[in-house]
Amino acid sequence: MKIICRKENEYQLNRLLKEYKFLDLVVVEKGLDYVGLCYYFSMNDIDSLVDYLKELTSQGQWLVGVYNDTLEKVSIHKIIYIEGFSKEAYFYTKDKEYVIKDKLYELEEKLKPYGFIRINKSIIININEIKYIIPEIYSRYSIYMNNDIVLVLSRNYVKGFKERLGMR
Amino acid sequence: MKERISLRLCSSFVYLFFMKFIFASTIALNESIIIILFYFLIATLMTIFLEAFHYLMIDMIKYTKVIICVILLLSIGILYFQYSSYYLVILIYIDFVMINDLLKSYKMYKSLIEFQSR
Q1: Long-range interactions of B35-41: CB distance < 8 A, separation 24+
Q2: pTM of the model
Q3: What is the ipTM of this complex?
Q4: Which of A25, A143, B24, B31 is buried deepest, with most CB atoms within 10 A?
């Protein structure tokens, strides 16, 4: 998480929001300029920011999927990538494959703050689980994941992907 | 992968043949099938080399600047010992493909590391 605030509030905010540092989010104090997606807060109403962050962490930290006909709760940090089909999606950890009834675009919205991004029409990946990225022809890229799976970043999603990584 | 190899093979062959035609216009396109086969063989070797580099690049991303220096020095070395305009344009083509691939990977790798360490 990136905090943009006035210097006098920096120490207080860093202490208060220490446990939410892993979130892929930008929070900006009202009155300061920022170009891009962010959450504005004011120091007078700091509780609403903490509530919002709590909500984000409590709602999205787990996904419930079906593995061998049993429901299992999986930490989203363990998910490597999610593949969507018409009415359901499959998410993959290092050694297991789970089925979930949510649609891919719903999962995309839900997991966005946790470092997930869509790389083609049917796949969302966890950026923290990428090993390396190699360019291919036709402006595509091959993405090598930590579980040795190779996925394709298609041309239409390259721009968004680069923006997310902070590339100019 | 097949797509990339076939595209590289075609472009290498066309480039080699076209450049030879430009720099040594005595060789006519219809001269001999042996010459065409020879250039096709050279193009195949170039493609194998570029393909090998593409996969080795994964381990070399961390040393991008060193690798670029080595590529350029090798090219200069080859040209120093046997200079011809034809070799020059062929080396420019190979260097361009290699350095372009390497730089794209390096930029991505750098941003990825920065993102992951946030």
Answers
A1: B39/B13, B40/B13
A2: 0.70
A3: 0.75
A4: A143
